[in-house]
Amino acid sequence: MPTNKRESLIYTIMMCFLMVLWMSMYNVALLQGGFSIEVVRQSWLGLPLVYVVAMCLDWFIVSKYAKGVAFRYLIKPASSPTMKRVMVSSCMVLPMVFFMSLYGGLEACFHSGEWTRLPIIWALNVPKNLIMALPFQLLIAGPIVQKLFRKGFPEGKVLA
């Protein structure tokens, strides 16, 4: 886990990139009915804007409240690092899925022009994204980013 604000920013940049890339590919694959090189291409082309939106949501809105909920209701300071990581990650994924599913719905309505369908698209996207995002975050993205983060930025090397 990051130990100061700079480490937290670097960690968030890495985690957000991996999660946004994966979830973009997942959502495009759902729309196209399968995974292909075209899915990767479309996801990569849309990545910059989605990434900026996700980073802003994560850094300025979700992170503060998610950590607050996790440390106030779910874990104690004496909890194990693994438990802290799992609880904070879970508390981060839930609102991010909520907001980013809205973003996806807005994007779909923008392209189709069918704005009246936004509530339905959003409501259908939230559970589809949640069943992919939470396990991916806890089992794949979290461990990968942690390992890369600590390998690239050993504890105590990034100054506060």
TrEMBL record:
The keyword Transmembrane applies. It comes from the Bacteria. It comes from Enterococcus florum. InterPro entries: DUF2798. Coiled coil: none annotated. The chain crosses the membrane at residues 9-29, 49-66, 86-106, 126-145. Keywords: Membrane, Transmembrane, Transmembrane helix. The lineage of its organism: Bacteria, Bacillati, Bacillota, Bacilli, Lactobacillales. This is DUF2798 domain-containing protein. The keyword Nucleotide-binding does not apply.
